[in-house]
Amino acid sequence: MTYLSHRLPNGIRIIHKPTDALVAHCGLTINAGSRDEELNEQGLAHFIEHVIFKGTQKRRAHHILSHMENVGGELNAYTTKEDTCIHASFMHNYYQRWFDLLSDLLFNSVFPERELEKEKDIIIDEINSYKDNPGEQIFDDFDGVVFDGHPLGRNILGTPKNLKTFRREHIASFISRNYATEEMVICSVGRIPFSELIRLAEKYFGHAPHSSRDNLRQAYNGFVPKEKVVKRRNHQAHCVLGGPAYKADDPRKTALILLNNMLGGPGLNSRLNMAVREKHGFCYNIESHYLPYSDSGIFSIYFGTDADYIDKTLSLIRKELSRFRNDHLGLLQLKRAKQQLIGQVAISFESNLAEMLSMGKSILLYDKVDSIEEINQKIETVSAAELLQAANEVFDPRHLSMLTFKPR
Fold first, then answer.
1. Which of 162, 185, 245, 287 would disulfide-bridge 363, Cβ 3.0–4.6 Å?
2. 165-186 pLDDT, tens per residue?
3. pTM (two decimals)
4. Angle formed by the axes of helices 253-264 and 372-380, to 10°?
C-alpha cells in the first residue's frame, strides 16, 4: 500500500492513496474542533461547518449544493472535538471541479446573516433530535461527566442559547484563530496522478499565505470519578461507565484498542455481549468504546436495559473488567484476539471513503499514515503483560465514572 505525501510552501499538507476505482474521495481536514472554542462560543465550530455552504463571493447556496451533485457527486462535512472536515465523493475525472469548489468554500465564504439565522433553527432541531434519542445523548453527557469543566466535556452541537448569539464576526474570529494553513490536510483516495493532484492543490490552495496557530489547547487534568443519575421519560434505562484513557500517541494505545475489542467491540463474540446479552438476556445493546485525543482519551461501556436489570448488568460488567485486570491472557486467547482485530482492520480498509477520512486525522496527529501492514505489526507485538498493565490502568474501578438515565 502506497501513500504519497507533499507539503505546499504555505504549510498545507497533501496525502494521497492511488486507486483504480471509478469513484474518488477527497477532503480537507482542519485541526480545529469544538475543544478550540471559547466558553461563550460553544457550538461555533459545528455551526461554521453548516454555514460554510451558505454562499461565497461567486456562488449562492443552491449553486454550492448543486456543484458536485449535478455530476453525481456527494458533498458532506463533519465536526469533532478536535477537527473539522469538508469532503466529497465523485467520479474520478471531477477532481478539478471539486478543488475549485473546496477552495471557494474555504477562502471566499461570506456567511450571509439571513442564512445564519435559518441555519440556527436547523441546528436547534438537530439538538432536539438528539434529546429524543437517549442512547446517543448519553455519550455527549458522559463526556461532560468525565471532562467536567474542560472544553472536551462540552457538547459539539452547542446550546440553543449560544447559537442564537452567533454573528458573522464570531465566525471570522474563530476561523482567524484556528484555520491555519499549518493545520490543514488535503486527503485523497482516487484515480489521479499525484503530480496532477499537487498541481491542482497549488493552483487552488497555494495562494493562501502561510499561517500557524498560536493558541494552545487547554490541557486536561484533575479527573475526579463521580456517579450521576438523571431521571427521564424513557421506557428503557441507559448507562455509560468509563473514564480517561491514553492519548493518541501513547505507546500503550494499541494494547487498549485490543482490550476494548475483546471486551465490547463490534464482534458478536465480545465478552460483554456473550456474558450480558447471550447468556442472561439482560439487554439488546452493550458495547465498549475507546476514543483517543491528541492529549487525552476516553474509555466507556454503554448498555441499555430494563431498569430492573441495571444492577445485575453492572455486576456482570465489573466481573469482566476484573477478569482482564487479574487474569493473564493465554497464548491461544491472545492469538485469537489479535486475529479478530487484524481482520476487522482489513475490512475497514475496504472502504475508500473511511480510509480517506482517517488519513487526514492521522497526518494531523502523527504527520504520517500507517499502512495496514504497519498496523498489523503493532497488533502482533502486543504482549499479554501489556494487556494486563493497560487493564489495570484503565479498568480500575476507582478511576471510573458512571452516568445513568433512569425511567421516571
1. 185
2. 999 999 999 999 999 999 999 9
3. 0.94
4. 80
